[in-house]
Amino acid sequence: MSSQPGSKKVFFHTFGCQMNEYDTGKMRARLRAEGYTDASSPDDADLILLNTCSIREKAVQKMDSALGEYRRAKRDGQKVIIGVAGCVAQQEGNALLKRYPDLDMVFGPDGVPHIGSLVRKASEGQRVLDTDFLDLETYPFVQEIDPTTHGVGAFVTIQKGCDNKCTFCIVPTTRGAEASRPSEQIIQEVRDLVATGVQEITLIGQNVNSYGLKNTGEITFAQLLYKVAEVPGVERIRYTTSHPRDMGPDVVQAYRDLPQLTSHLHLPVQSGSSRVLRRMKRFYTRERFLSLVDDLRSARDDLTLTTDIIVGFPGETDEDFEQTMTLLDEAGFVGSFSFKYSPRPGTPALRLKDHLDDKVSGARLTRYQTRQRELSLAWTRGHEGKVVDVLVEGPSRHDEGVVAGRTGTNLMVNFPGSLELVGQTVPVRVTRGFTHTARGERV
Ligand code: SAH
Ligand code: SF4
Ligand code: F3S
Fold first, then answer.
1. Cβ contact 367:325 at 8 Å
2. 341 Cβ closer than 6 Å to some ligand 1 atom
3. For residue range 92-124, what is the model confidence (pLDDT) as tens digits?
4. Ligand 2 centre from 196 Cα, in Å?
5. Model confidence over 132-150: pLDDT tens digits?
6. Distant-in-sequence, close-in-space partners of 64: CB < 8 Å, separation ≥ 6
7. Domains of the chain (ranges plus CATH)?
8. Which of ligand 1's atoms lies nearest the C-alpha of 342?
9. How many CA atoms lie within 13 A of 385 on its CB side?
10. Sheet harboring 105-107: ordered strands across?
């Protein structure tokens, strides 16, 4: 724990979605300029930053228990600055500082661009609270890339915040209003990433399909896809998250035109019941969603879809839930992030009267997940004996001498091979499909 310039150490603990992972990378980049490098463990750190998620109650509990441990170490004598960043920080603000007298910093997602000055203040002994949202017109998207970028794939943010008001969701409170990042900055970041060896770009935002619509003179999301595809070295493009309401024919057309656009789309539907969708304020119906799926599949016949599902939204009847079950089969999702509805502070759905019994939601969730597992397994097994193109990402997590990579349809395939294959796209015969991954051999 020295404090000589250039030898300070920061430890990041990141919760939540891709936005948080990306923000952590940006904080790391900015803190390099303040003399910080990465600590190998929290005990070795002069600064611990928790980048937190508030999407469901459970996420907040996870961060509470991690924070408890770091605070204990501090009480036991570790000289360390502890900061809570991200969505819980934005939501709770000063209440966190009050609750934890030994906490040094609380700042929301809009604190990321000026992390340097926030940390300097904390080093001078001030307690830092920063939950102001920045001006949307001049929002200072951080341009430096994460200095530890080394992989085959990387995220690039294209917008911040969210202007929707889905009634269950805390994100508009924690991330503020939507602002699109200028397209030249996005393209520059893509080029910078490609220069480090990145081949697969995932464009991220809470509602990527509304990109640019509120900025005069900016290109649309579909146009942005074409621009990214023009950058030499970009082999694959993914994006997340798409809102079904805002997914227009121009984006569907991009699936016809752009081979770089992968044949996998994460398209959160939330529920299969139009009645529930209305109460969630999603502004599409089951029918509209299914017709969008048809359009997408006719543009790209091998397209695979994954989704997000909320089970047990207030007022969800047996009938409504059956609609979600049948939608799962009709849309043919190969994977879902599915969770029980979790009441979030200040969200409109809290005021709905008919909240469900946890047991009912639990039983529904189990049924949904069981069926999803069957469909996922049928999908991976459907590849057995076939040859697929795999972009190799790195060593397998479990076996030595085995590498792992994904197909454009997002099937994770493990196969015996050396690390020299990382970054190459190779033909692999699938020998066995499991629920989430497959095994194969090089041909
Ligand atoms: N912007 C994305 C979603 C971001 S939040 C979209 O509109 O699709 C990621 C997922 O968390 C959501 O799709 C939803 O399924 C889930 N989620 C959000 N709020 C939730 C809540 N209160 N309870 C349970 N799940 C929730
Ligand atoms: Fe939340 Fe809806 Fe915005 Fe997604 S689109 S972040 S679910 S409010
Ligand atoms: Fe969580 Fe905030 Fe992302 S609430 S899901 S970290 S936008």
1. yes
2. yes
3. 999 999 999 999 999 999 999 999 999 999 999
4. 32
5. 999 999 999 999 999 999 8
6. none
7. 8-130 (3.40.50.12160), 149-262 (3.30.750.210), 387-442 (2.40.50)
8. 23
9. 1
10. 36-38, 8-14, 47-52, 81-85, 105-107, 128-130
